[in-house]
Design a protein that fits this description.
Elements lengths: L20 E12 L4 E13 L11 E2 L4 H5 L7
Antiparallel strand pairs: 1-2, 2-3
Length: 78
Amino acid sequence: MKTEESDWVLFYTMSESIETKAIIEAIIIEVDTKKNNRRLHSVGYGVAPLFYAELPISVEIFKGSPREVIKNANDPGF
């Protein structure tokens, strides 16, 4: 069984700072057709800049939860 799922998020902001970034979580959807259920598995997250002259072609995916970004927001080396 083939499944296609996607979520679109539209947002509006007055910010134009190059420090503004989007946190993107990568999720795999596992579908069990015999039991007719599905499970979501987080496989990591990426941080993408929003207001650069040229957006990056790729975004590095980090292991763990995207909540790590919030926990380490005050750490300039993170």
